[in-house]
Amino acid sequence: MTNPYDIHKVRRDFPILSIQMNGKPLVYLDNAATAQKPERVIRRIHDFYQREYATVHRGVYTLSQNSTWECEQVRDRCRKFLNAPDRDEIIFVSGATEAINLVASGYGRPFISTGDEILITEMEHHANIIPWQQICLEKGARLKVAPINDEGEIILEQFRKFLSPKTKMVAVTHMSNALGSINPVRRMAKLAHEAGAVILVDGAQGVVHASADVRELDCDFYCFSGHKIYGPTGVGVLWGRKQLLEKMEPYQTGGEMIKTVTFEKTTFAGLPQKFEAGTPPIAQIVGLGAALDYLETLGVENIRRHEKEILDYATEKLAAIAGLRIVGRAKSKGGVISFTLDGIHPHDIGTVLDQEGIAIRTGHHCAQPLMQRYGLPATARASFGLYNTRDEVDVLVRGITKVQEIFR
Amino acid sequence: MIPEPKLSHLYQEVILDHNRRPRNFGEMPDATVRARGVNPLCGDDYQIFLEINPAGEIQAVRFLGSGCAISKASASILTEMIRGKDTGYCDHLKNEFIRFMTQDKVPPAMTEAVGKLKLFEGVKEFPVRVKCATLIWHVLEEALKSLPEKKEGGRS
Ligand SMILES: Cc1ncc(COP(=O)(O)O)c(C=O)c1O
Hints:
The complex is a heterodimer.
Chain A: H1 7-12, E1 20-21, E2 24-25, E3 27-28, H2 39-52, H3 62-82, E4 90-93, H4 96-106, H5 108-111, E5 117-121, H6 130-139, E6 142-146, H7 156-162, E7 167-173, H8 185-194, E8 198-202, H9 206-209, H10 214-217, E9 221-225, E10 236-240, H11 242-247, E11 258-261, E12 266-268, H12 282-298, H13 300-319, E13 324-327, E14 336-341, H14 346-355, E15 358-359, E16 361-363, H15 368-373, E17 379-383, H16 390-406
Parallel strand pairs in A: 3-15, 5-6, 5-7, 7-8, 8-9
Antiparallel strand pairs in A: 1-2, 4-10, 9-10, 11-12, 13-14, 14-17, 16-17
Helix pairs in contact in A: 2-12, 3-12, 13-16, 14-16
Chain B: H1 7-10, H2 13-20, E1 33-39, E2 44-52, E3 58-66, H3 69-82, H4 87-102, H5 108-114, H6 130-145, H7 147-151
Antiparallel strand pairs in B: 1-2, 2-3
Helix pairs in contact in B: 2-3, 3-6, 4-5, 4-6
Bound molecules: pyridoxal-5'-phosphate.
Pyridoxal-5'-phosphate (PLP) binds next to α4 of chain A.
């Protein structure tokens, strides 16, 4: 069997994967929280600081102009990655959380008023709940929550019923970080638009495991964090339709985002600077560019095929363990498996696995309402990245057996 | 420096046993005081019920809730240790235990004071789990704090 995706070679690109953890080889399965970085990204940031770093947009000197050019190259890179129509629609933010807050405030303030509704789903991350709750409080609007079924899939007929002429904003995750479900965003966008609402897609997970083509998805806003896509922390992207971004209020004000300032009045800069107040995370933007280059070298399709294979293998192996229950069995899923073990608290699972070198996440995964939906205080979650192997799944399975032995 | 963690220090047989068969587990409808504590990070959630006689002694104690093996065993052992004791002693034991769990160097007198609770010493090798062991003691603190109010008739 020929596989163009050489997993052993890929693993060598990630220096951290060769370390030992508690005397065992590290098995890193917390990729939904944050992904490890390939050497190419680490080196790019390092080299940039050593030889190329200066502020952006302000310097007349060559070093600054070069720094600016590098960052703007990454903006183009992101535009291409999301298949967005216009580079001015790519806003650099600190991450998905800031992007959602930016839209909730920048769009919500001028365009949402008393009696309006904002629709989210039951599977949202806190980052895609609380900013909307806050704007609802401020504006006297109502937050509506579309339900999911026991498999962890959005119920489209219900979703449709929750939409009305009062719905001004729909905010949904592309992929659930706690369940792995990938939402039918294109259809949800169509329904939202028919109701006259705009739709934001939280792509924090989706950008890693699904296709983040904003024209294909036909959404109005899309956002993601650099650190989950093998880039650095502190940088992320908000994409929005130009005609919406132009109408919105700035989220933060200060340097960089202005045309002219007097003490009486300020005129704001055009896109994208209007939303990029202050000195941006320059080296992180450059690092994000290196991460996207790296993904392109491996081939997004190859990565997806590999991850699907690992997910399917892990699902089969875990499902075969007596007393293990997988939470979230959507037909369309990315590389996340949430599970519980009968009579054993997820924290105890996490501690025992850690001693085997296995890093998984335990807890509510910043989705407390979703956990309540399933009547669970917490789950254990293994989430896979482009470098995980079948062997690592086997190590996980043996680790779980050990957990069960201790708590027998 | 954190000592090298050992699972066998964390999950000692006594702890596993209390986790499997928690003692004094269940509700107490006519408790003198009750309190609830949650650890929002891991979802541990416990309630404690105390029946206290006029002399200030714990006549009966029960607990309810869910959480990891460490937090559950800690709660179970607490109920065994404070029954029949007066509230002053409970308060003292709570302070000693929380200090025992959070201090690097533990003087011998403190080890003696915590008695059976010494078996949670191994938890200190796993710093994120220390709060699992102490949670129920904080809940006890809450319950004891609400005591004077109770005399004025205000029970929450
Ligand atoms: C679905 C989802 N949305 C939003 C976020 C928030 O991302 P960040 O913390 O990088 O801003 C996360 C990260 O945990 C996530 O998984």
